[in-house]
Specification:
mainly beta
Length: about 120
């Protein structure tokens, strides 16, 4: 059983930055494909960023050029650096993972495990 623990959420003003962290346990980190999702009140959960096969990265159009996903394998931690935050980025952010290779550009990210979520609130 994989366990994910997020941290780093908070409240910032528009234009500010936050860095989310997600520490994974319960499986070899190199066997996991990490990703970030978010869910705003009244909306469905949406993909934000995840790792792709062969070193590629996926970003949703709404966060491209502002957010950066990364990971530190020895620390078993994935990160989401969020810059130039906007009020529409306000949401609960969830770390996700699954066993296996990361998806290619033609495959979907199919989350198997979820963190508890960390709230990000951006005020105008």
């Amino acid at each position: 059983q994989v366990h994910l623990v997020e941290s780093g959420g908070g409240s910032v003003q528009s234009g500010g930055s936050l860095k989310l962290s997600c520490e994974a346990s319960g499986a070899p980190f190199t066997n996991l494909c990490m990703g970030w999702f978010r869910q705003a009140p009244g909306k469905e959960r949406e993909e934000v960023a995840y790792f792709r096969r062969y070193g590629g990265l996926f970003y949703s159009d709404s966060v491209k050029d502002r957010f950066t996903i990364s990971q530190d394998i020895p620390e078993r931690t994935a990160y989401l650096q969020m810059n130039n935050l906007k009020p529409e980025d306000t949401a609960m952010y969830y770390c996700a993972t699954y066993y296996g290779v990361c998806p290619s550009s033609r495959e979907r990210y199919r989350a198997q495990y979820w963190g508890q979520g960390t709230q990000v609130t951006v005020s105008s």
